[in-house]
């Protein structure tokens, strides 16, 4: 609802009341309409202030209403009524003014913001555009380039930037409502003619056609198939070229195409999934709302290679004291330099002071004795990790949490090396650890709920999307990656090229195809794992048995490349060619194509035409099938957990909602039918056999997601 009160004898104060973020639900919209009418009819009221309760102006339209039969007064006439009022309407912005919230404020004649407030039009991140006049008013207020930037990226701006851009009229460090009330009194009675943004001409944009062509090219490149950014550019173009009323018509048409789109549903699902994963639970009864995390003031990191360095930076940036241990002197020296460089660059980006003084370096594990939490990031070698965990168990103070950043190894086995296995969890960061948003918190059967709660809370403080998952080989993300990679290799054997497979995946929306990613992370990483698993036989034998390992189809292609010293970008050659070792730009490699042809001849394989659809179905459905298996085993608590992991850690296109949501969009029956089809053609590939949960869901007609 919206509360109306008279303050300072002549100011009508309208307070938006819909916790937690004052989203513009039907009830709130009705409340605003009623309160505005009251204020305009009351002769005692000379000016009006609109604010939000509990320190937040408004988080925008109520996203939960989308997709339902929306009732209540529509936003657009409500905002027009505010703008056309003959008494000054002032928005008092505290906390956030986002989406419809900012559009409401843009309908007001003046905007006063608290210095800590943040403003933005994030609709594009939900697959929409600012369709309550935002796409037409903002360019008129701040000019086309600045408005286009905010609308196509959805980024939030600080109050200071909003003032500089001209979105707000004043910024205060004091009580925003008091400041707005005073301000409204000072302008009461003045003409409002120059204050109605819809009447402003849009500032002239030089070289309009070229400007919008370039803008469209840019969003198409970065949107990777997302439709909302494209519609946002079209809407702003309408603002720049059409009178306001016609621009509004165009805004509405564009919104109509977005509003019911699958992409909007997927993006809105991601918004809630990102929040849902914070409400974790474990099979042993641990829960987010009943488990109390332990305080963490000092953290330690063991091993300062690629991951340890990033983790150290992320911890220091969170404000913790960090003890960083590395046994190799050369690595330690390099790590110190790298960490201070990363901290400096991070501070420059955020406009904050660097924080290297919070880090103590040591070559000796004894230095971690005072830490509340330790994260081990030494080589992926079980014997080494066992030794480190035994040492930690001896050295650390009682109650210290012992975490491992292992990508795949058994957490419970590591816990068994310590005196307090209940204090051991996985904290699986993703490279680069100070940048990537995802953190898998892996609990073993003996991990205490307090240990899980502590790691989850620390992840949140570090700005990560933390997802609690059970203990199995590869946990959730890497486990699902295995069948995906496997299918990509098989497709090469059957006639595809790395370019074809990557193109299909990139067209689907991944930032990089599977072979480019392999080149980036290093082909030797998987090779080492396959060797440790006893899968690698050196040299190439021929005949079908050469491609069967442990009773299932196996492709030695990756191993053969590694034997040639082709480790990817680091060696300048992998699935692609690079101009030098460490080069970043991939080129098609004729050698690789001849190699594939020779390999097929040697193996008696006849290349056939593989199309993009087969690439997507085999790679993605095999990955999704593993996701169902993971759900069935209870390794992930729900589909949101898997989807969040893939969207935030593996580049799954957000506008497709994550693999499990995508399966629902495609239709579970179709996914199962295609898997069955491919499994019949390839009976030696168990990852193509639909798992029993998928079969049961299809048989019962049940859905995995209530949104679908
Ligand atoms: C606001 C925040 C910055 C706060 O952050 P924080 O404090 O960290 O809290 P959170 O944990 O994020 O949130 C707490 C809690 O609140 C829920 N929540 C947050 N925002 C919303 C919201 N807007 N709606 C509903 N619920 C919300 C959140 O989920 C949490 O709950 P939980 O999930 O249970 O844990 C932060 O929350 C934030 O960033 N929020 C989102 C801001 C945002 O994106 N706003 C934009 C919303 S979209 C919008 O405003 C669009 C419009 O206004 C346009 C409307 C026009 C509609 C016209 C329709 C016409 C259609 C025509 C087509 C016709 C088709 C046809 O012809 O049929
Ligand atoms: N590289 C990646 O992309 C990711 C790696 N991981 C995991 O993180 C862990 C570390 O991986 P990377 O950082 O890539 O390895 P790395 O090889 O870059 O670094 C490991 C570091 O540990 C040091 N070290 C070895 N034994 C030590 C000991 N006893 N005490 C202190 N330091 C010791 C080494 O000298 C080296 O500097 C592995 O378990 C890996 O599986 C997890 C996610 C992603």
From TrEMBL:
> Where is this gene product found?
Peroxisome
Pathway the protein contributes to: Lipid metabolism; fatty acid beta-oxidation
Task: Give Gene Ontology CC terms.
Answer: peroxisome
* Catalyzed reactions: (3S)-hydroxyhexanoyl-CoA = (2E)-hexenoyl-CoA + H2O; a (3Z)-enoyl-CoA = a 4-saturated (2E)-enoyl-CoA; (3E,5Z)-octadienoyl-CoA = (2E,5Z)-octadienoyl-CoA; (3Z)-hexenoyl-CoA = (2E)-hexenoyl-CoA
Which terms are listed as keywords in the entry? Fatty acid metabolism, Isomerase, Lipid metabolism, Lyase, Multifunctional enzyme, NAD, Oxidoreductase, Peroxisome
Provide any one GO MF term from the record. Answer: enoyl-CoA hydratase activity
Q: Which residues form the 3-hydroxyacyl-CoA dehydrogenase C-terminal domain?
A: 474-578, 615-702
Q: Which InterPro entries match?
A: 3-OHacyl-CoA_DH_CS, 3-OHacyl-CoA_DH_NAD-bd, 3HC_DH_C, 6-PGluconate_DH-like_C_sf, ClpP/crotonase-like_dom_sf, Enoyl-CoA_hyd/isom_CS, Enoyl-CoA_hydra/iso, NAD(P)-bd_dom_sf
**Would you say which domain of life the source belongs to?**
Eukaryota
Gene Ontology biological process: fatty acid beta-oxidation
3-hydroxyacyl-CoA dehydrogenase NAD binding domain location? 299-471
Q: What is its EC number?
A: 1.1.1.35, 4.2.1.17, 5.3.3.8
Family of the protein in this entry: In the N-terminal section; belongs to the enoyl-CoA hydratase/isomerase family. Belongs to the enoyl-CoA hydratase/isomerase family.
What's the subunit arrangement here?
Answer: Monomer.
For this entry, the protein name equals: Peroxisomal bifunctional enzyme
Phylogenetic placement of the source organism: Eukaryota, Metazoa, Chordata, Craniata, Vertebrata
């Amino acid at each position: 609802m919206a509360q109306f009160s008279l303050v300072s004898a002549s100011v009508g104060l309208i307070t938006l009341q819909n916790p937690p973020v004052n989203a513009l639900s039907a009830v709130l919209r009705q409340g605003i309409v009623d309160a505005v009418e009251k204020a305009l009819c009351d002769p005692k009221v000379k000016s009006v202030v609109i604010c939000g309760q509990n320190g937040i102006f408004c988080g925008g339209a109520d996203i939960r209403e989308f997709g339902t039969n929306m009732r209540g007064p529509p936003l657009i006439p409500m905002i027009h009524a505010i703008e056309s009022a003959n008494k000054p309407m002032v928005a008092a912005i505290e906390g956030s003014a986002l989406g419809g919230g900012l559009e409401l404020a843009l309908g007001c004649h003046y905007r006063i913001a608290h210095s800590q407030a943040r403003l933005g039009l994030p609709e594009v991140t939900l697959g929409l555009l600012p369709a309550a006049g935002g796409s037409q008013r903002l360019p008129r207020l701040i000019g086309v380039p600045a408005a286009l930037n905010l609308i196509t990226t959805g980024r939030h701006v600080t109050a200071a930037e909003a003032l500089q851009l001209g979105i707000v009229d004043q910024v205060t460090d004091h009580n925003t409502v008091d400041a707005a009330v005073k301000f409204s009194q000072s302008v009461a009675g003045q003409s409002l003619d120059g204050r109605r943004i819809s009447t402003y001409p849009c500032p002239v944009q030089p070289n309009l056609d070229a400007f919008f062509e370039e803008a469209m090219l840019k969003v198409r490149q970065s949107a990777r198939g997302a439709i909302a950014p494209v519609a946002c550019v079209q809407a702003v173009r309408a603002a720049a070229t059409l009178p306001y009323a016609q621009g509004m018509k165009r805004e509405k048409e564009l919104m109509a195409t977005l509003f019911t789109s699958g992409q909007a549903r997927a993006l809105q699902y991601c918004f809630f999934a990102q929040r849902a994963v914070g409400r974790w639970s474990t099979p042993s009864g641990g829960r987010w709302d009943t488990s109390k995390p332990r305080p963490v003031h000092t953290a330690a990191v063991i091993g300062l290679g690629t991951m340890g360095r990033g983790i150290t930076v992320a911890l220091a940036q969170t404000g913790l004291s960090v003890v960083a241990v590395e046994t190799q002197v050369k690595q330690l020296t390099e790590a110190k330099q790298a960490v201070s460089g990363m901290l400096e660059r991070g501070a420059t980006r955020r406009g904050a002071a660097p924080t290297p003084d919070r880090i103590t370096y040591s070559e000796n594990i004894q230095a971690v004795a005072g830490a509340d939490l330790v994260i081990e990031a030494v080589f992926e070698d079980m014997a080494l990790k066992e030794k480190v965990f035994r040492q930690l168990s001896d050295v650390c103070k009682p109650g210290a949490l012992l975490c491992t950043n292992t990508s795949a190894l058994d957490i419970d086995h590591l816990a068994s090396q310590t005196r307090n296995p209940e204090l051991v969890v996985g904290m699986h960061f993703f490279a680069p650890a100070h940048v990537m948003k995802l953190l898998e918190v892996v609990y073993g059967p003996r991990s205490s709920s307090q240990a899980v709660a502590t790691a989850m809370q620390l992840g949140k403080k570090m700005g990560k999307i933390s997802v609690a998952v059970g203990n199995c080989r590869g946990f959730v993300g890497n486990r699902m990656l295995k069948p995906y990679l496997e299918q990509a290799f098989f497709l090469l054997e059957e006639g595809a090229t790395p370019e074809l497979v990557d193109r299909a995946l990139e067209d689907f929306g991944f930032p990089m195809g599977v072979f480019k990613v392999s080149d980036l992370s290093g082909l030797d990483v998987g090779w080492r794992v396959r060797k440790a698993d006893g899968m690698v036989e050196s040299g190439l034998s021929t005949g079908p048995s050469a491609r069967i390992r442990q009773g299932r189809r196996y492709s030695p292609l990756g191993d053969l490349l590694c034997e040639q010293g082709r480790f990817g970008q680091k060696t300048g050659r992998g699935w692609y060619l690079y101009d030098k070792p460490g080069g970043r730009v991939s080129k098609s490699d004729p050698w690789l194509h001849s190699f594939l042809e020779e390999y097929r001849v040697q193996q008696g394989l006849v290349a056939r035409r593989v199309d993009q659809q087969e690439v997507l179905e085999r790679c993605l459905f095999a990955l999704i099938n593993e996701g169902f298996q993971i759900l069935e085993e209870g390794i992930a608590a729900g589909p949101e957990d898997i989807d969040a992991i893939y969207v935030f850690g593996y580049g799954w296109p957000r506008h497709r909602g994550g693999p499990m949501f995508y399966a629902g969009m495609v239709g579970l029956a179709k996914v199962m039918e295609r898997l069955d089809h491919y499994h019949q053609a390839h009976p030696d590939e168990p990852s193509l056999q639909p798992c029993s949960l998928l079969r049961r869901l299809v048989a019962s007609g049940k859905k995995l997601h209530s949104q679908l």
